[in-house]
Design brief:
Chain A is built from five helices and five strands. By secondary structure, chain A is an alpha/beta fold. The longest helix of chain A has 14 residues. Chain A is globular, with a radius of gyration of 14 Å. The two termini of chain A are 26 Å apart. Chain B is built from four helices and five strands, in the order E-H-E-H-E-H-E-H-E. Chain B starts with a strand and ends with a strand. The chains are: A alpha/beta, B alpha/beta. Chains A and B meet through helix 1 and strand 5 of A and helix 4 of B.
Chain lengths: 130, 102
């Protein structure tokens, strides 16, 4: 079965980023396809490479990034939500005249249409968030 | 056209869980995850509502989220099935549609 997963909550906010990550891992283990994971609202904060949690805590952004690399996942960050929260890829940082970008490997920035297309292309859309 | 309702808020904190019970129809399934897992515990002000819904709906709780909140499985309402993430995935595949009550 083909899934699109939506994450509306930032890491460490409540539990939804953890829940979504574990759901995606379980679905992949069962042989399902993850067509896309779409990060919206504070969920875009899952895509920064500049987070440094305490050493004994999990680094959710890296876990998403590693999972994307391992399974060739399409992790998409909403552009409007990302701009509001200071989440930039190199192109967007340049376009906005900013001095740095902070997106972690494995994520890309695009529009809300990617969520709609993902839902159309997938058998199921599962929403995690606040 | 059975639907899986995914609830992640405690019924003692928000009314999303109660709204879910009011909207779910016979044959649907309800899965409690995250803070909603506490709703599975028997003998609370919420348990009679959930038991009434169980007459014609299947109810599940994510075992890890229940344990993370210090609730043992012997405290939950009889008939609620405990699932892991693999079981969560199966429920989303078995039902035609899913609705997250965030």
């Amino acid at each position: 079965m083909k899934y699109t997963v939506m994450v509306n909550e930032g890491p460490y906010q409540h539990q939804s980023s953890d829940s979504a990550l574990q759901f995606v891992r379980a679905a992949l283990e069962k042989g399902h396809e993850i067509f896309r994971v779409f990060f919206y609202h504070d969920g875009v904060n899952n895509g920064t490479r500049l987070a440094v949690p305490p050493k004994d805590d999990r680094l959710l952004q890296q876990e998403w990034s590693d999972l994307a690399k391992e399974h060739d996942l399409d992790l998409v960050i909403c552009i409007a939500a990302a701009q509001r929260r200071g989440l930039m890829d190199p192109d967007e940082a340049k376009r906005q005249g900013l001095d740095a970008d902070n997106i972690i490997e494995g994520f890309r920035i695009s529009g809300l249409g990617q969520l709609i297309e993902g839902s159309i292309q997938s058998d199921r859309t599962i929403v995690f968030g606040d | 056209m059975a639907m899986l309702h995914i609830v992640n808020k405690s019924p003692f904190e928000r009314n999303a869980f109660k709204s879910c019970l009011d909207h779910a129809v016979a044959g649907d399934s309800i899965l409690m995850i995250e803070d909603a897992a506490v709703g599975a515990v028997d003998g609370t002000v919420f348990s009679s509502d959930l038991k009434a819904a169980m007459a014609d709906k299947s109810v599940y709780v994510l075992g890890g989220d229940l344990a993370a909140r210090g609730m043992s499985e012997d405290r939950i309402i009889d008939g609620i099935k405990v699932v892991d993430y693999a079981g969560f995935v199966d429920l989303t595949a078995e039902n035609d549609k899913t609705q997250s009550w965030v």
